[in-house]
Amino acid sequence: MDHQIDKPMSVFLFLSIIFGIASAQICSETAGSFRPNATYDTNRRLVLSSLPSSASAQAFFYNDSVSGQDPNRVYAMGMCMPLPATKPDDCSECIKTTSEEVIQSCPNQTEAYSWSAGDTTRCLVRYANRSFVGTMDLEPSQKGINDGNVTGNMTDFDRIWEELMLRVIASASAETFRRKFAADIADWTNLQRIYALMQCTLDLAPGDCSDCLRESVRSYQGCCHGKRGGVVRRPSCFFRWDMYPFLGAFDNITRSTPQDNGANTIKKGNSSGTIVAIVVPIVVVVLVLVVVRRRRKSYRDIDLENDDDMSSTNSLQFDFKTIEAATNRFSKSNRLGHGGFGEVFKGTLMNGTEVAEKRLSKTSGQGDKEFKTEAVLVAKLQHRNLVRLLGFCVKGEEKLLVYEFVPNKSLDYFLSDPAKKGQLDWITGYKIIAGIARGILYLHQDSRLTIIHRDLKASNILLDADMNPKIADFGMAKIFGADQTRADTSRIVGTYGYMSPEYAMHGQFSMKSDVYSFGIILLEIVSGQMNSSFNNLDGTAGSLVSHAWRLWKNGSPLELVDTTIGESYQSSEATRCIHIGLLCVQEDPADRPAMSTAILMLTSDTITLPIPRQPGFFLQRRLGLDTVSQGVESGTQSVNEASITDLDPLGR
Asked: Would you list the DSSP string of 199-225?
């Protein structure tokens, strides 16, 4: 038996072949092709060029798309592994280099991806002509092996190897471990160890991440059992193991030396040989089972009596003691805010992750099964401009939602505070407008569902540390069927002033209802005034929309621009934003642009905009109405004040 921890020449040859740059780019030959220098090629280069800086600034993960009509629309993703030594600049450089190599290696393929091969940094770059966010893709895949063979007691080796793989899969796919990354070590002999690393793309649901990694492990076992290392690359996940540490991934991991008792017991913390003896047979049985790729289901088909869906639910569930400890027993010092659905507390999990915990009111009236089902649905919405649900907790009458913590509160906090408003310079405001638009587009078109938010407003736009917007509070959201374009309801919920006229007066809502709300928010950002507290310069009460329309008709739209912005904006850009805002609040929904068109209008100077007509607006005082809320308070300064989605596939 080999008792040396070494790196033979074959290992270096293996690295150069398998992990080398030449073999890292995987071009899909079945997805289609395009002519070089065509529109798709231009869009591909454009979206890939935005990945390096964006991914390094967005916690090493970023996805985007270049708007355009099919087949020229390009979706892209950039992601870096959170290795101990990786810095934002390393991530940016890795994605930049990998993007360039993908373009060179895949000159006319409409889909491709690459897991790069840097010595200290590993990253993923992927693009396609279809939206793949939240979708588990196993093919095309690529396997590589070390041509050296394991020597020694293979029975012991297989047992320890399999237990390590299952442990790493569980860590990487755990919903509470948001990085979708895990690296761990298993002791084989006193002098030899097994090192394993796994990564899923951050948009994957925990169950999909687990399936992808399990399939990779099973695939490797089928082809390469007995080798001294290997790698499996897939569009949605990455798996590598070896007999020596690599990529600096194991620098912060310590393992105690096992007792040389012939059983090669793995020690970690208080683990014992008894536990291993119980667990290992289970592990072997689990890994022997053939992993069958689950049938893709609509969210409407979710049934918590089904094992797959219950598994997804369980992976999202937090223990109440963990939640309670994170907030110091819901102490007042950790209280962030209060909304119609309950209180929000800041918490810190054991791994240091800061979260916002929404403690629902005991009178919310929602059953445990419905609550869990909706939590699973909301958690699967993954976009950088949506607040992320990390999990939930149910214990007796207690129902809690755990969200990512967003430090800069909400947009209305800045718009309603003259001292804070100065932070919304033109560049920041424009970035917020564009981010909100991308988040809405994801809900309407790019996710696997068609979701109407129904309560878009400034207090439901959270701002992260870099002032990037995140849409929150899906408490009023509705899912539309594949062929559904609008729905009617007698239960009007939301906030007057942001509601479209057809919804407020007749209960009719559609994607264009959200477009109307977006138009109001856009005008609020440009003017620096909340619609709910708008007053004309002469002190008379009025409507922000009617005021913007009056200035537009008088040929002086720039008078709407917030004076605190100063001269930091371009008049043509500001005028265009006001123009788009007025188009979004047109009375007839058919006259409002779709969100994909609105984004194109915001990002392109070459598109001629339609002439707006008189907008649709009404004075709530005339109707004798104030805010209509179902768990929402108009004008509140919310901090992570997101609530569970009222998801009704029938749109009732």
From this structure: EE-TTS-HHHHHHHHHHHHHHHHHHHT
Q: How far apart are CA 439 and CA 459, in angstroms?
A: 15
Domain assignment of residue 103, yes or no: yes
DSSP 121-181: --EEEEEESS--TT-----S-EEEE-SPBP-S-HHHHHHHHHHHHHHHHHHHH-TTSTT-E
Integer Cα distance of 98 and 85 in angstroms: 19
Q: How far apart are CA 239 and CA 216, in angstroms?
A: 7
For 488, the 3-state DSSP assignment is: strand
Q: Is 74 within a domain?
A: yes
- Quick one: 542 and 493 in the same domain? yes
Q: Which residue has the higher pLDDT, 444 or 24?
A: 444
Burial call 271-308: b when 16+ CB within 10 Å, e when fewer: eeeeebeeebeebeeebeeebeeeeeeebeebeeeeee
Residue 8 in domain: no
Q: Which residues of 417-444 are buried (b: 16+ CB within 10 A; e: fewer)?
A: eeeebeebbbebbbebbbbbbbbbbbbb
Q: How confident is the model at residue 368 (pLDDT cuts 50, 70, 90)?
A: low
Are 126 and 132 in contact, with CB atoms under 8 Å apart? Answer: yes
* 628 within some domain: no
Shared domain check, 471 and 365: no
- CATH number where 71 lies: 3.30.430.20
Residue 344, pLDDT above cutoff 80: yes
Taking only the tens place, the pLDDT of each residue in 155-183 is 889 999 999 999 999 889 876 556 789 99
Across the chain, what does the average pLDDT equal?
A: 76
- Which residues are annotated as catalytic? 455
* Domain boundaries, position 205: 142-256+268-288
Please check whether residues 320 and 436 belong to one and the same domain.
no
3-class secondary structure, 379? helix
Burial class (CB in 10 A: 0-12, 13-18, 19+), 53: middle
Looking at the fold, whether 363 and 483 belong to one and the same domain comes out as no
At 573-598, the pLDDT tens digits run 999 999 999 999 999 999 999 998 99
Q: How many Å apart are CA 433 and CA 411, to the nearest integer? A: 11
CA distances from 497 to 130, 534, 551, 591 (A): 36, 10, 19, 19
